[in-house]
Write a structure and sequence with these properties.
The chain has about 325 residues and is an alpha/beta fold. About 45% of the residues lie in helices and about 15% in strands. The protein has two domains: about 5-170 and about 215-240, Rossmann fold (3-Layer(aba) Sandwich), CATH 3.40.50; about 170-210 and about 245-310, UDP-galactose 4-epimerase, domain 1. Helix 3 packs parallel to helix 5 (about 85-110), helix 5 runs parallel beside helix 6 (about 140-160) and helix 7 crosses helix 12. The two termini are about 35 Å apart. About 45% of the residues are buried. It binds 2-amino-3-ketobutyric acid (AKB).
Length: about 325
């Protein structure tokens, strides 16, 4: 991995991944963005940026050619809940966009990372310790595009040798750029409300377990997988990875250790709750551990301490 293009560089993952790759001293790390979501501050000042609308193959090709890009991180997507209100747009970005990225990668010899999600799983999938290779039958547009994206990415690897790799991210928790429109967003919002001194109104019912991960670990996963020895990879699109299986009360109690008068109440969002109920309680990430050495570093308490101290700043 030398010169990198990040499509969706101002989103939840993109902001931090772009800076992390630049800090680690990779070659040119180009922050791709769409008008209206321009990079700011350090993201703008620390390296090149360019307008890259994923639905415009020509724009992707132009930047790849100009900067001699060899690796594309394709982070453009609508998250699960918002995709249900705009399914056509979710398909256009998730599938037409991915097709454009893969075609450019095929023509210019780039490797491609496109995050998948726990959203690929559905009601018939085993819920606990969900295996790497199992039933993927989501009923959300987000999940449909993620399953199809995994298949299309594997197709480009098998048919054309495009070096596609991916992980199924769980809910990602970070203090830098908030997510928008995801089912797991509550696990980020709860920290913001705790630090503001507000009661947190939780849209997901107590006792609803989903896998979560601190962003520091997610960034390492996205980078380590792209640097992994390809001869060790039996799977490609996409690896189960996880750090912790959490439900709202567990996060709440973890925060209360540091902010004892913090309060939570529940006002369930039926759409998000239905999606959460269809997702696994916990994933089995043995294949990622064995094939490229995946190992999370943050547990719940370490994450809570880090989130609270940064948000208080
Ligand atoms: C979402 O909730 O939509 C995402 C995801 C788990 O893919 N955070």
């Amino acid at each position: 991995m030398n010169n990198v293009l990040i499509i969706g560089s101002t989103g939840q993952i993109g902001t931090e991944l772009t800076l992390e790759l630049r800090d680690r001293g990779f070659g040119k790390v180009v922050a791709g963005y769409i008008p209206g979501a321009e990079p700011k501050d350090r993201l703008l000042e620390s390296g090149p940026s360019a307008v890259v609308d994923i639905t415009e193959a020509g724009q992707i090709a132009e930047v790849v050619s100009k900067y001699k890009v060899d690796t594309i991180y394709n982070l453009a997507a609508l998250l699960s809940a918002v995709a249900e209100s705009k399914p056509q747009l979710a398909w256009k970005i998730g599938m037409d966009g991915l097709f454009n990225v893969l075609e450019v990668a095929r023509q210019y010899g780039c490797a491609v990372f496109t995050p998948s999600s726990i959203g690929v799983f559905g009601d018939n999938t085993p819920k606990d310790k969900t295996p790497q290779d199992t039933i993927r039958n989501p009923r959300t547009m987000y999940g449909v595009t993620k399953v199809a994206g995994e298949l299309l990415s594997d197709y480009y690897y098998i048919r054309y040798g495009v070096d596609t790799r991916s992980v199924r991210f769980p809910g990602l928790i970070s203090y830098v750029t908030p997510p928008g429109g995801g089912t797991t967003d509550y696990a980020v919002d709860i920290y913001y409300e705790a630090v503001r001194g507000n009661t947190f109104v939780c849209p997901i019912a107590a006792g609803t377990f989903m896998d979560m991960m601190y962003m520091r670990d997610a960034l390492r996963a996205a980078i380590d997988l792209m640097l992994a020895d390809p001869s060790r990879l039996i799977h490609r699109n996409a690896f189960n990875i996880t750090s912790m299986s959490l439900e709202p009360e567990t996060i709440y109690r973890s925060i209360c250790r540091y902010i004892p008068d913090f309060r939570i109440e529940y006002r369930i969002d039926p759409l998000r709750q239905a999606i959460a109920d269809s997702w696994p309680n916990s994933l089995d990430d043995t294949c990622a551990r064995e094939e490229w050495g995946w190992k999370p570093l943050f547990d719940l308490d370490a994450m809570t301490q880090d989130m609270l101290s940064h948000l208080k700043e």
